[in-house]
Each structure stands twice: as C-alpha cells, then as structure tokens.
Amino acid sequence: MSGSWNDFNNAKQVSNLIPKGTIAKVQLTIRPGGYDDPTQGWTGGYATRGSTGAVYLSGEFTVLEGPYARRKIFTLIGLYSPKGPDLGNMGRSLVRGILNSARGIADKDNSPQAQAARRITGLGDLDGLTFLAKIDVGKDANGEDKNEIRIAVTPDHKEYAGHMGQAGAPAPASIPVRSQPPAAGVRPSWAQ
After folding, report:
1. Which of 1, 20, 23 is nearest to 10 (CA)?
2. Exposure check for the chain: N or C terminus, fewer CB within 10 A?
3. Looking at residue 65, what DSSP letter applies?
4. What's the pTM?
C-alpha cells in the first residue's frame, strides 16, 4: 500500500492539460460579450470590452475528435488594446489562420478566391467555424498552466489533410449557419 487512507501527500498529481503541440480539429464558439463598435465592424454583440479598455472575442474551442474530444479550451482573440497594436495584430493573425484552415486555403495563396475567403461580413461569421488548431500551454490569471489556441493549422501543413479530410477541397466561403443564438440579454444587431 502506497499510503494510508487519510494521507494524500504521495498521491499522484493529475494534469488535465492537453499536451503542447497537439493538433486537433476544433469548433469555435464565440461567447458574446455584448460590446459593439460599428465604426470597427464589431456588431452583433460578439465582442467583449474588458476593464482595461481592451476589446476581444471570448473564444470557446471544442475539440471534435480524437482522445481529447469534447474538451473545451478557452482563449481570448484580441481585437484592440489601448496599449498599442500588438493585441489586435495577434488577433488578426489568428483569425486569418482560422479562416485559412476552415476554408482550406494555403497561407501563401493570394488568388482572388483566397482573398474573398479571408473576408468576413461580421464577427458572427467566425462563430461555429471548424478548423485545425495547434494546442499550446499558457498561464491563466493565477499563474496556473492552461491550454490555449494561438495557431491554426493550414492546408500547407503536412498533417492538415489527415485531420481535415482531403486537401485542396476547400469548404465554401459562405457564411456559416449559427449553431446557437447569442446568450440571453445579448440582442443581435438586426434586433436593435
């Protein structure tokens, strides 16, 4: 026996983290924050404005397949920070990668079709997208390890076809159908 029934000092610690570098097919759900700024194109109540003035999307990424299926990863996608352009630029890079991954576009493809597929009509177009993500490990507000998504895996990656199906068969660049309405109390832009 490795320990008495009331002494848990030598009990094994369990890590609930998905290993860093794991590639997984995920679906993005935006948890609406109710903040709109039509001059920036932020409508529909999807954006969240934090206490520091930063604006972001509160992303919930659900792993769809494999050993970590149904696990959720929460990552903020930066739109704006009063401290400078870095947060917004990182967010724009992540969204570009998500669109490339979800719509089957190589990052270097600058054809008119690829450019059109990288445009959205609003933040709601991102809600419900399925794409391939490389899972990372970062720190939460308490300094504890947590999973994050910072990189989307695009068709030029060797593992893309194996996870997303046949390479070169992009998903249509149309607006995805919403899988669920915004949270209670958040009115869509058309209802305001």
Report:
1. 1
2. N
3. S
4. 0.79
